[in-house]
Description:
79 residues, 0% strand, single chain, 5 helices, mainly alpha
Amino acid sequence: xxxxxxxxxxxxxxxxxxxxxxxxxxxxxxxxxxxxxxxxxxxxxxxxxxxxxxxxxxxxxxxxxxxxxxxxxxxxxxx
Length: 79
């Protein structure tokens, strides 16, 4: 569980479990966007298939393969 004031949960209209999932997914997207996790590993961590994860990440500003050859190698290593 993530320590969170009840006011935050009320404001977001979510349960503690929903909040934990939101934080986990947001963290996975940020780690993917910054190149610290591959999309495959980030998706696996949050229990999603890679393509839906990538769609959510791109909706939040992630760009696929924008860091050149190293980014391409990281992403294709899982194929």
